[in-house]
Structures are given as structure tokens and as C-alpha cells.
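Record 1 of the preview.
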Amino acid sequence: MRHSRNYLSGSLVQYLLVAATIPIFTRLLLPSGYGVLSIFNSLLTLLPIIFGLNFRGGIGRYYLDNEKNDFEAALGSNLLFIISFSIVVLILLMIFKTRISLFLNIDEKVFVYAAIISCTMVSLEIYLRYLNGSQQSSVYSILSVVRSGLILFSSIGLMLLMKENRYFGKIYGEFVVTLLLSGYSLYMLVKIAKFSFDWKHVKYTLRFSIPLIPHAMSMFILGYFDRIIINQLSTKLNTGIYSFAYDVGMAMNVIVMATTKAWHPIFFQEYNERNTDKINRMVKGYAKKIYFAAVIIILFSSEVIHILADSQYYHAIGIVPVIVMGYVFVFLYTLYFQYASYRKRTELISLNTFIAGFVNIGLNYWLIPIFGYEVAAHTTLFSYILLFSLHFINAKYILKEKTIPLMVLLPHLFILFAIAAIYMYGLVKINHWYFQLPVKFIITAVSFYIFIYSDTPEEVLN
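->
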């Protein structure tokens, strides 16, 4: 719980910094400019996977592996390899930058900055994963908050100085801050590492990381590729509105990611000792709090949107609840994802995520031209539900692990679905705030009793 608090507090500060700048960005930028920034941010999620070969996961696992006692030497070998590889990838991307930019329908300059930033991020991501694995949650959170704060404040300053294409202010701010903090991270890693290249250390990391690249790429597809497809098939205006909805729904992702970061090392420790009953009790507590947070974000998302943006962005109101439910299933799938990670069956992880990602791409290209850009949120939710189902089947029936029983998670999940449906198909269609707000507070009170105060749904019925 202490690590959860550290990650959650750091993540919340990051989100509050982002949330505080949303009303500034939405007023300095037209939705089309907001859409360009969304594509840029999507690239900052995709390209580090290519540059880093997902080494952060392999190095983090090497640290967690209790049988290994030569982490410093392994880190040195891996740093030498991955830095050299990143430079080669950057050169190749610069050669093909024009073709890639045309495919993405973005300014070539935007792509170039995204590529350079992503290349330098490799050392920062490895250092953060080391901090996570070594349970230095406070340092992890401080570094993450400092990075977000510096980027946002420098971005606002630069955007205010610019008269056109103001989104480049955010890009320049990200470039400078990432360069500085990546340099610091590399310095800290060099202090830990012992540099004598040994292929066996690189081979260990590659064996763990390479099979996870399709997983990481597919997670990018699930989380970000819908915006790229909307930018290709629709307009930058619609891309901006959809991206704004995701920024509001990101509050749910903040809570989910803080929980999963804390849960990863705890699960490994408890499952090593086969404390399955303790795992089930902890998961039940985590899940109920996640569900309650989802209720709050869904119910009051429209008020947040009215505060953060002007009427150009109000179409996002109907999208946010679906996005929030998608993040709930991100939490649920990670609970079963851990079993394959524990067994080092990374190929199974990648297979499941690839299937869900491929389904998401197909549904988006098929349904967006028919139903409009809003349907992308529904296709993503469906894909996350599919991913959760695949990981459950994999853990229970293929790996035959003693998994978390579904009855620990599903009863409260059905209640959450019912509340979300009441909001989306009832409350959100009523324009009278004096009716909406009292009903929302009543639902909040009932939800608190169900998810926080009571132990099981049966107690509520009794």
C-alpha cells in the first residue's frame, strides 16, 4: 500500500498538472492543433518501443530474478548494446522520414522531433524500470513528476510566445526536458553499471524482451492507433475532440497504472510463496476501489469537460464513459497478464495482445467510415474486454495456474456496468443540471456503500 500511495500520488500530481493545462491548450489551440499534438504524443509511445526493443522490461526482470547476482554487469552490457542499436534506428528513420510522415498525415518536422525525443528516452525508461523493480517508488514518482512539470510549464511559456503553429511549443518543451532528464538517467545508470560486454547478458534480455515487442506494439494499437486512424479517415478536428476525451478519461488510467505498478513486484513476491488467498484478498480490495473511481469519473466527466474546454470540445462528453470502462479492463487484464510474465511465457502475452490489437485495427477501419469517429472508443473497449478474456483463458487453462477467481471481480463489475449504462443512456441525455446533480450524488453515495463500505454485493441485497 505504501508503494501504491507513492505511485498514485506521483501519478495524480502528473495528471493534475496535465489537467491544469488542458483549459490552456484548448484555448490556445484549435481542435485541429490539439489533434496534431495527440498524434505527436502517440509517436512518443510507439517509437521508444522500436528504439528500446522493450529492453526496459528485460532489464527490470533481470533485477527481479533472485537467481541472478550480477545485475551491474548485465546492465553495462545491455546499455552498450541498446544505445548502439538506437543510433542505427534513428539513422534509418531519418532516411525514410518523408514517407512515414505522409502515411501518418503529419508535418515531417513533427515526426523528426518525435523520433529524436524517443531515441533519447531509452535511458530514461530503463532507469525508471530499475527504480520500479528495486521498489524505489518515491524516487520513481519524484522523477516522473519533475519531468511532467518541466515539460508542461516550458510548453505553455513557448506556446504563449508563438503566434502560429503553437503546438510546436509543446514539442520544443518536450525535446529540451527529455534531453536533460535522459542525460541524468544515463548518468545514474552508468554509476550502477559495470561495462564489460558479455553477450550472455544481452541474450537473456533479448529472450525476455523480443517476444514482448508485439505485445507492446499491440498495446500501442489499442491505446493510440485509433487516433491515427481517425486522422487518416476523418479530420484533424475530430482527432482533436477524440483526443481531448481521452485526456479527460486519462484520470482513470492514472489510477490503474499506479495500482499495477505497485502490484507487479508484490504479485511476484506473494506468488513465489504461493500466498494465493492473500493475493485474492488484495485484488478484491484493489478492484473495488478501481470500480468506485470509475463511477466518480464517469458521473462527473461532463462537468469536468465544461470547465476545461469551450463548446468546440463538448462532443467529447459521450465518449469519456466508454474510455473509462476501457481502462477498467486494462486493470483487469493486467491481473491475469502477470501469470504469464511470472512464467516467462512472453510469447503467449504477445499473442493475446496481437489478436486484440489486430481486431481493434480491423474494427476501426471498418466502422469509423460508417458510424463516425466516436465508434473508436467502443471498438477499443471491446478489444480490451477481448484482451482480458484471452489472458484469463491463458492463465487458467493453458498455463494451468491457480488464478484469481472471477467471482472476486465480476459481481462488482456488473454493478459498475449498470451504473455506466444509467449515466450514458439516461442522465447524460437530460440537460437540466438541477435534476442531474442530485441524482449523481445519490448514485455516488450508493456506489460508496457498495464498493467501499460493504464487503460483497450480497450484503447490499441483504
